[in-house]
Each structure stands twice: as structure tokens, then as C-alpha cells.
Amino acid sequence: MGKNFGKAYRKWIVWVLGILTISTNIFFTAVLYAEEPAAPAIGTRKVKLLKRINGQDQGAPASCNNPFTVYVDKERNLLYIVRTGNGPVDRFDIVDNYKYVGTIADSPDIKMSYVLDVTTDRNGNIYVLDARRNKIYVFDNQGVLKQTIIPRDNRPDASALSIVGISFSSKGDMYLADKGGSGVQVLDWEQFLAEEAI
Fold it and tell me: Is the CATH code 2.60.120.260 the one for domain 56-197?
């Protein structure tokens, strides 16, 4: 009897330890893989979709279903959509239900390679940045090419900058983001243009 009791006791101990091990594993697995609690909601309403712009529904000659980048000229209520990486740039009138009003940089003379950014200055000139060719194309507000800029560092031994972004301040200073190591360059662009015109 004592021998059988010892076997039964050992089986009982193994069984209890097995149950405890399984329970512990289940508990810690549940704790480890439990999802974090959801962040508190800022509001209970969903954001309302106002418009879906694909280009052709607004009168553009080609689809904008896979846009590369977008820019809004708040002063003139114009939306600029870069259709693909190599352009062109379509322009839409926000006030007139996003009506297509023209295409920038769609000419055989302008061979764009990788349009990374588009912006406007306070005079309505349009700047299209081709990052692969390292050029900034400047168009007037009618979309006519005025000039091509190749940004360079002003240090004597420096080569062309590797520009990935362009923007303007309200007073007309140009900001160029250079991924080549010289940071963001701030240029007195309007002063430069004024001196060039003299």
C-alpha cells in the first residue's frame, strides 16, 4: 500500500505541477501579447470626406489617381498635384469646385525626371523641383517657363546642392532643404531677383 501510495502521490504532484505550469504559461502569454489599451478618442465623429480628386472628373487631361505630391497655394486658392514622379503638375481651382485650370511643366522642352516638390512664392511664380536633375524650374502664374535654377553652395569648392525640398516665407525668403549635408539654406530670393532686374 505504501508503495502504491507513493506512486499515486508522485503522479498527483506531477499532475498539479503540470496544471500550474500550463496555467502560468497561459497567464504570462496573455499578459505579454495583450494589446495596449486604445488611446482615448479625441472625438466621437469621423472626419468627413469633402472631395475625392482624380483629375479627369475635374477636367484634367490625365488621371491623378496615384499622385506623387501635392501643394496648396493658400493665397490664390489653387491646388497643385504632381501626377507622377516625372511630372507634369496639374493645377486646380479650389473655389470653383476643384476645376482643372492648367498643367505646368508639360512641354517637350522640359524633360523632368523626379519631381519632388512644388511651391509658389508670394508673387504667384511656381517653383517645380526636379531632385534627380537637381534643378528648380520657375514658371510665371500662367505656367510659362521663366528660368531654370541649379542650386549651388556659395563656398568656393562646393558642388551643386542635393535639394529635396523648397519653400518660401511670407517675406519672400527661399528655403532649400539639402540632403547633401549643408542643412536648410535660407536665401534672400526677392532681393536677388531685384538686383538681377537692375
Answer: no
